[in-house]
Amino acid sequence: MKMLICCLILNILLIGACDTQKPSSGIPFHVCKEYGAPVSYGEGCHPGIDFEISPGTPIIAATDGNVSFVGDSDQEGSFSGGIFVRVQNARHFDLIYAHLSKVFVQMGQPLKRGQLIGLSGTSRDGVPLLHFGIYKIGGSSQKYSQTYDPEKFWLDGRPQCFDPEADYSTFFREAITLPIASGAYAKKLVAVAEK
User: Fold this and answer.
1) CB under 8 Å, gap of 24 or more: what pairs does 160-166 form?
2) What is the distance, to the nearest Å, from the Cα of residue 158 to the centroid of all Cα atoms in its chain?
3) What single-letter DSSP state applies at residue 150?
4) Cβ distance 149 to 86 under 8 Å?
5) Would you give the DSSP letter of residue 152?
6) Are the C-beta atoms of residues 147 and 48 closer than 8 Å to each other?
7) Based on C-alpha coordinates, what's the Rg of the chain?
8) What is the pLDDT, as a whole number, of residue 142?
9) Which residue, among 95, 93, 17, 27, has the nearest Cα to 84 in the 3D structure?
10) Domains in the chain, start-ordered, CATH in brackets?
């Protein structure tokens, strides 16, 4: 019951935080599997957040970092279904972006918050989503015990969309914004991706 209430609150926060900036599809995204939800793999708890979004939605860097992996799956092969990108945020943590249909980054590339990483795709069973997680550096993407709760890293303590006009220089490097572009910025990134 507590998990269900947390999921509902997070969904309300996500939609409320972005209600003036919808993703490019015009449909609000929401969480279809929250952090810590029961799963049948790994250690039995979901090691990230699954956002249900339309395929082709721009996925962006949630904070600054360097691309440390780009491929069809992680080391354990758990994210088959789309492309997997791992980004290291200084010495703080790794960020995982999984089930992408297309990527615009490469190994070793430095990223700035809001920079286009790729376009969302589907899981191996055809569900359109983005799996996003925060891991200990070098940690296994399958092990819940090697993850961090995103609730502890949201910029200003709440999920919020990236604003290309905002100055994020005063925030800690480990503070994250949502990894999904929205509003006019999402449309601009889709146009760039289609070139």
Assistant:
1) 160/17, 160/18, 161/17, 161/18, 161/21, 162/60, 162/62, 162/113, 162/114, 164/114
2) 15
3) G
4) no
5) G
6) yes
7) 15
8) 80
9) 95
10) 2-194 (2.70.70.10)
Please state the length of the chain: 195
Which residues of the chain carry a pLDDT beneath 50?
Answer: 1-28
82 to 100, 109, 188: CA distances (angstroms): 5, 20, 23
| CA–CA separation, 57 and 151 (whole Å) | 23
Angle at 19 between CA 60 and CA 169, to 5 degrees: 45
Residue by residue, what is the 3-state secondary structure of 63-106? CCEEEEEEECCCCCCCCCCCEEEEEEECCCEEEEEEEEEEECCC
Q: Can you tell me the distance from the alpha carbon of 119 to that of 103, in angstroms, rounded to the nearest whole number?
A: 6
Cα atoms in the Cβ-side hemisphere of radius 13 Å centred on 97: 31
**CB-count exposure of residue 95 (10 Å: 0-12, 13-18, 19+):** buried
| CA–CA separation, 153 and 159 (whole Å) | 9
